[in-house]
Design goal:
The protein has 88 residues and is α+β, with helices and mostly antiparallel strands. Helices cover 25% and strands 41% of the residues. The protein has helices at residues 17-27, 50-60, and strands at 2-11, 31-36, 42-48, 68-77, 85-87. A hairpin with a 5-residue loop joins β2 and β3 (42-48). The relative contact order is 0.36.
């Protein structure tokens, strides 16, 4: 079990990016959360198996149809022991 903190840059607010993230993360068996930040980025915390997190991050580079992510900053952090994935 690992955890990763992400900041997603680009056109990621107002395009259902958070809802898409929740659905995709849950389908991969990940726990964590996602939220919009005031600067127009999206912040996410992912917890789970390394392979599932890597698949999630790869998918997040595309996101839902109207999104246009330009960069994802990721860093490994300590797991918080979360059990579900939610939108904040």
């Amino acid at each position: 079990m690992i955890a990763t903190h992400l900041i997603i840059h680009g056109h990621v607010q107002g395009v259902f990016y958070r809802d898409w993230t929740v659905a995709t993360a849950r389908s991969l068996g990940l726990a964590g959360w996602v939220r919009n930040l005031p600067d127009g980025t999206v912040e996410a915390h992912l917890e789970g198996e390394r392979g599932a997190i890597e698949r999630m991050i790869a998918a997040m580079h595309d996101g839902p149809p109207r999104a246009a992510p330009t960069r994802i900053d990721a860093r490994e952090v300590e797991p918080q022991g979360l059990r579900t994935f939610e939108r904040r």
